[in-house]
From TrEMBL:
Pfam families reported for this sequence: Zn_clus
Residue intervals of the Zn(2)-C6 fungal-type domain: 21-51
Domain of life: Eukaryota
Keyword terms, alphabetized: DNA-binding, Nucleus, Transcription, Transcription regulation
Taxonomic source organism: Aspergillus calidoustus
Entry GO MF terms: DNA binding; DNA-binding transcription activator activity, RNA polymerase II-specific; zinc ion binding
InterPro entries assigned: Sterol_Uptake_Regulator (IPR053157), Zn2-C6_fun-type_DNA-bd_sf (IPR036864), Zn2Cys6_DnaBD (IPR001138)
The protein, known as: Zn(2)-C6 fungal-type domain-containing protein
Gene3D superfamilies per UniProt: Zn(2)-C6 fungal-type DNA-binding domain
Taxonomic lineage from the root: Eukaryota, Fungi, Dikarya, Ascomycota, Pezizomycotina
PROSITE patterns: ZN2_CY6_FUNGAL_1, ZN2_CY6_FUNGAL_2
Length: 439
């Protein structure tokens, strides 16, 4: 088989319209093959397909079968081995949906978290097995399973599911806090696994809180200082959660890297940059480089604050370039308009990169890791310039994680936060984020 491209044809290829495509495909304006329970595009991009929500949840009859039958290498078989007679699962309560959600995690949630697909056994088998020996991991697993089910459930049901998620996280914290006092080779992997669950919980909780705050601020002529600080604190909490997990990682990196979780932390070599990608990096960086003019001309900003803002922006520029370099673009013979693919305006660049695939999604969060305490303080205060930087980070977050259930519309909320705090008179400061991220 050769790599010779097919001969060029005139005009666009005809295809039928996908009127019933999934939500991620509609959002990216690409053709959906409407394959259920997960369409081909979502399978390729490892994102949560909205068709998944059409699947019924497990009933009691299915649960009784799951605990007694199943191929040894399948999720059902794994559950049969883990939850068989004589195995104690203290994180699952009787007279509750806990066992059902434990199954849900192994069968559905594990698939949605695994990127690349090759690490799916870690989430489907290894971590659920780890939970038996470390109950705080089990409670963390349950917390995320409830959140995942909440994201694909009707609004009325989701509130109760989120409350169950919070219950399990609270149950986990004492055991986690005690274990982290003495990190060893044996407990380093459970601690790191639970820390990942805390980050996912923080995403969901921060999105829920910011959504409620933004809804209450709608229609108000001027947002009050208390709401500004609440929004800022919510945004900063995400950064602090991600910095915490890396704090654990750096302390036991040698153990984790040599253990079963090594595949989950493996980074990927960037592909060779095309001329188009190089140009896109240049165009976006030129725009980002202009942002310091906003605070450098403000006499109320101290030198230390200006330094913190500029440092956070420098890290963001690096993140933009790295994510673009790691994004694998779709083949050139896609159904996109040839004229639009040659356009280098900011909106089109974002659209083209969204159509690509980022195998190394954690690379987006390197920005959070490098943020200084001074910048986080500004973010907690709801500082308008810190919000401008956050809104521009939302672009690359949206680019890498849109369609993934665990981001919980955070990119949209970050832009909306900046918008309500800046007000109409300063809206032009975040024109790019407002243009490319649909609220």
């Amino acid at each position: 088989m050769t790599n010779t491209p097919p001969p060029a044809t005139k005009g666009r290829r005809f295809h039928h319209k996908s009127r019933y495509g999934c939500a991620p495909c509609k959002r990216r304006r690409i053709k959906c093959d409407e394959k259920k329970p997960v369409c081909g595009n979502c399978t390729q991009r490892s994102v949560e397909c909205s068709f998944r929500s059409l699947e019924p949840t497990l009933n009691n009859q299915q649960l009784s079968r799951i605990t007694t039958v199943g191929n040894a290498s399948s999720p059902l078989g794994v559950l049969a081995r883990v939850s068989g007679p004589g195995v104690d699962m203290p994180f699952c309560r009787s007279n509750s949906r806990d066992l059902e959600l434990y199954c849900h995690f192994q069968i559905y949630t594990s698939t949605s978290l695994a990127q690349p697909v090759s690490i799916e056994p870690l989430y489907r088998e290894f971590i659920p097995g780890l939970a038996v020996s470390f109950p705080f991991v089990g409670h963390g697993l349950m917390s995320i399973a409830y959140i995942h089910l909440a994201t694909i459930s009707p609004q009325g049901a989701s509130k109760k599911l989120l409350a169950e998620s919070a219950y399990h996280l609270n149950q986990a914290l004492p055991g986690y806090s005690e274990t982290i006092k003495n990190i060893t080779a044996e407990n380093s992997t459970p601690l790191f696994s639970f820390a990942m669950f805390v980050v996912l919980f923080t995403f969901a909780n921060s999105s829920e809180e910011s959504g409620a705050l933004l809804q209450s601020a709608q229609g108000q002529p001027r947002i009050d200082e208390k709401t500004v600080r609440a929004l800022g604190t919510t945004a900063a909490r995400v950064a602090q959660s991600i910095q915490n997990i890396f704090g654990i990682f750096w302390r036991c990196q040698h153990w984790i890297s040599a253990g079963p979780m090594a595949a989950a932390i493996r980074r990927y070599l960037p592909p060779t940059l095309s001329d188009t990608s190089v140009e896109w990096i240049r165009v976006e960086d030129v725009h980002l480089a202009k942002l310091p003019r906003l605070w450098e001309n403000d006499p109320t900003i101290t030198l230390a604050q200006s330094s913190a803002l500029s440092s956070s922006l420098a890290c963001l520029r690096d993140t933009f370039a790295m994510v673009t370099q790691l994004t694998v673009l779709p083949p050139e013979d896609t159904e996109a308009d040839p004229l639009s693919t040659r356009s280098n305006d900011l909106a089109n660049i974002h659209q083209q990169l969204c159509a690509g695939h980022l195998y190394d999604a954690p690379s987006v969060f390197t920005w959070y890791i490098r943020l200084s305490p001074d910048f986080l303080n500004l973010l907690e205060e709801g500082n308008q310039y810190a919000m401008v930087v956050l809104a521009h980070f939302a672009i690359v977050l949206d680019r890498a994680c849109a369609g993934k259930w665990w981001t919980h519309r955070l990119s949209e909320h970050f832009v909306a936060m900046a918008d309500v705090i800046l007000g109409e008179e300063r809206r032009e400061w975040i024109e790019w984020p407002l243009t490319v991220i649909a609220a």
